[in-house]
Amino acid sequence: MIILGTEELKQAESILKQSFPESIKVWRRFKKVYGCIFNINRGKPHNLEVIADQWPDFAVIICKPKVQGTKDREGDFNIYSIYSKSKDTLKQFLNRPGVINKDAFTLLAGVDIRHLDAVQEFADQHGVPWKVQVVMNVLLLQNERQLQFKESNAGLRFAPLSPAHAHLVNSTWKYGGDLNSYNSVLNYITHNPSLCVIDEGGTEPVSWLLVYQHAALGLLYTLPQHRQKGYAKFLVSMMAKNLLEQGHPVYCFVEEENDFSNKLFTSLGFQNTPDYKAVWFELNKRQ
C-alpha cells in the first residue's frame, strides 16, 4: 500500500486527466477519485488520505478518511471513494492490511458496477454484512452549447450561498437532516462553489446548487412553490460555465431511477454511458 504525498497527488491528477476527453468511459470510472484529488491539490480543507496499490503504475486508488469518526457525513459514513481498473486488483487491494477496517461501518462510494463482485466476495469472505445502498448514473458535461440561460432575470438575485443558509439546505437534502449532514453542508458552502436564486424582495434562497468535496455538482433543489420556473436549469448552466472557466471537471451523480434529474441534466448537454454505473456499497450495519 502506497500513501500518496504532495508530488504523487499532482502526478495522479495528471495521469488520470490524460484519459479525458479521449476516453470518456474510462474517465467516468475515476471521476469521484479525480474530483477528490483535484480539490486536495488546490488546497481545499479535507480529512482524506489517498492510497494506491502501487506507484506509479497503479491499478487501484482509494480516497479514505484520514481520521475516522469526524462529525460530518463523510466521517459518519466512513466514506471510501474508489477507482479500480479490474475487479481482481480491487479485491486483492481490499485484503491488504491497513486498507480497510473490516469491523467498522464503511460506505464504498463510486464502485464500478462491473467490479461489484469483488467487494461482495471480499465481504462474504470475511463474514461482513453488506448492502447496496444506491446505484448512480454518472453524467459528464459533453456539450456546453446546450447549457440554458434565462432570457429575463427581472426581480431575481443570484448569489453564492452563505453559511447562514446551511440549515435550510440540510433540511431539504435527501441524505441530510442531522448534525453531521449539517456540518457537511456547511463545509461545502464554505469551501466550494455554490449558487442560489433569491426571489424579488426576499432574503432566503428559493433554489440552489452546491459542489461536493469530490467536485461533483449536487444538492440541487427548488422549493416546491417556486418550481416550473427554469431555476434548476439556469443554476446548473451558470455553475457549469463558471467551473469550466476555472478548469474544474463538470459532472454529477444521479440515482438511476430519478428520471426527472436524468432528463434535466441530459437536456443541458450532460451525457451518461448506459453500460457504466457507480455503486454505493455498505459494509457492516450502521449503528
Low-confidence stretches: none
Mean pLDDT across residues: 91
Beta strand %: 25-35%
The number of helical segments is 9
Beta-strand segment tally? 13
Helix content: 25-40%
Spatial separation of the terminal alpha carbons: 29 Å
Shape: globular
Q: What's the order of the H and E elements?
A: EHHEEHEHEHEEHHEEEHEHEE
Largest sheet: 9 strands, mixed
Radius of gyration: 19 Å
Helix and strand composition category: alpha+beta
Name the features:
single chain, 287 residues, nine-stranded mixed β-sheet, four-stranded antiparallel β-sheet
Structure description:
- The structure is a single chain.
- This protein is α+β, with helices and mostly antiparallel strands and 287 residues long.
- Helix content is 33%, strand content 25%.
- The protein has nine helices and 13 strands.
- It has helices spanning 6-17, 24-40, 73-76, 87-94, 116-125, 166-172, 179-191, 231-245, 259-267, and strands at 2-3, 48-52, 60-65, 79-84, 106-112, 130-141, 157-159, 194-198, 205-211, 217-222, 251-255, 270-272, 278-283.
- Strands 1, 2, 3, 4, 5, 6, 11, 12 and 13 form a nine-stranded mixed beta sheet that branches. Strands 7-8-9-10 form a four-stranded antiparallel beta sheet, with helices on one face.
- β2 (48-52) and β3 form a beta hairpin.
- α4 runs parallel beside α5.
- The chain is globular, with a radius of gyration of 19 Å.
- The chain starts with a strand and ends with a strand.
- The model has no long low-confidence stretch (mean pLDDT 91).
